[in-house]
Amino acid sequence: MTKILFALIAAAAGVATSLQSAANAGLASRIGLGAALILNTLMVLVGTVVFYLLSGRQGTFFPAATPWFLYIGGLCGFVVILSLAFVFPKIGAGVTIAILVLGQGAAALAIDHFGVMGMPKEPLTLARLAGMLLACSGVALMRV
User: pLDDT > 70: what percent of the chain?
Assistant: First the structure.
């Protein structure tokens, strides 16, 4: 049951990514990419502050001995939002998200294989590599 719930949450995040990208691209075409990113980021900030306050202000922002590279999540989020808002109207929603998933899958396989950023190691197998090749095939088919 728990794995099904986690899968549903991940699927909801996928839906939100597509909707967010389409909304940001549409907004950017009307007010400019920079202004759209600022508004998007303000909405994320407001939601995050509300979540933080409602969750009981748990955690310390900069605990000692935390590696610097664990703080790049915000920069990665910026790259995702900027890239998708820019690319969506250029190559279409379906292909953009397919390529996004392909990039996520390739990075995830490397993160798993090498245990990057403290993640548990999950070796690259022929089956996992075959799955990545199928994802590549899916992107190629969507471009036809």
Answer: 99
pTM of the model: 0.82
| CA–CA separation, 135 and 138 (whole Å) | 5
Nearest-angstrom CA–CA distance, 141 and 27: 29
- Binned at pLDDT 50, 70 and 90, residue 144 comes out as low
Secondary structure of the chain in HEC code, one letter for each residue = CHHHHHHHHHHHHHHHHHHHHHHHHHHHHHHCHHHHHHHHHHHHHHHHHHHHHHCCCCCCCCCCCCCHHHHCHHHHHHHHHHHHHHHHHHHCHHHHHHHHHHHHHHHHHHHHHHCHHHCCCCCCCHHHHHHHHHHHHHHHHHHC
